[in-house]
Write the structure tokens for this entry.
Amino acid sequence: MEPKKNTKANVGRNSSLYFAVGLALMLFLTNYAINYKTYDKELIDIGQLNLDDELDEEVPITEQLVTPPPPPPPPPAAPEVIEVVEDEEEVEETVIESTETSQEEEIVEVEEVEVEEVEEDVEVAFAVIENVPVFPGCEKGNNNDKKKCMNDKIKRFVGKKFNTDLAQDLGLSGVQKISVFFKIDKTGDIVDIKARAPHPKLEAEAKRIANLLPKMKPGRQRGKAVRVPYYLPIKFQVQD
């Protein structure tokens, strides 16, 4: 005897479908429960916005400066009255003569123009000049003897004339060194005097002494008088 079974009453017929639906439902509920968040109402209270204070802002009253109208333009200048003068004078036209020459015209010989030679202001050093400047009293001897005589006489001259007490009055002490530079020109005069010293008053005193030097016989190079620069050192001890 075969058992009677109802095919509609078979419970395991759609079990796989039910399992899939139940699994999907559980996953949805689990995800919702994990992502669910709650907030405290006291923390999210942002208060009330009051716009009355902003609307009641006072606008400062500004004073409008009234600029005066520009001055009226100056009246137009009166038109100049042009007086028409009748041209009664006859103007003679100037005829420009041609400066071109022809082959038939005779050429006048031009006289030779004499050009004056300008003497150059030559300057030769004292150590190499052919004929040294001659200090009064140093006319004898050769060139070297005249140089030595000139140096000795200038040193003695400065030693007699220079005011060494000036350094003590200025409060200076020790050895004082002064450098004097000048030139003996083509006429034998002392020119272009310069000095370097520890004090301006000592420089002035050195220039004064150089101006007192006597006129000399000028130095000569190749037979012509030339300028000769000269260096004069002055050195002395201040008495304490």
Observations:
- The CA atoms of residues 136 and 165 lie 28 Å apart.
- The domain at 143-237 is CATH 3.30.1150 (Fusion Protein Consisting Of Minor Coat Protein, Glycine Rich Linker, Tola, And A His Tag; Chain: A; Domain 2).
